[in-house]
Amino acid sequence: ATMYETDSYGVEFAVNDALSLSYTNEKSEETTNVTIVAGAAGQVKTHLEADIDSIQAAYVIGGATLGVAVTETSNADYVATKEEKVTVFSIAMAF
Length: 95
Fold this sequence. Notes:
Elements (H helix, E strand, L loop, with lengths): L1 E13 L4 E16 L9 E18 L2 E11 L8 E11 L2
């Protein structure tokens, strides 16, 4: 059996009517109960924590919003030492 426990927080700051900046942090722990091995006194549990940091910016120009988000993850996909960095650029249009 596998269980996940996640704690997160975020902050956002509106610089002005057009520009906003934000930061989020998540810590997610995976706990796995391993089957009892013959002769063992009890179950063995493994723990692995993934840490995710993300910085975002959004700028509004008329009916368009331009965005960028940079996310860094340690122990990505709950694999020890797996590091990921993703950058996403976005454009949203209102008609």
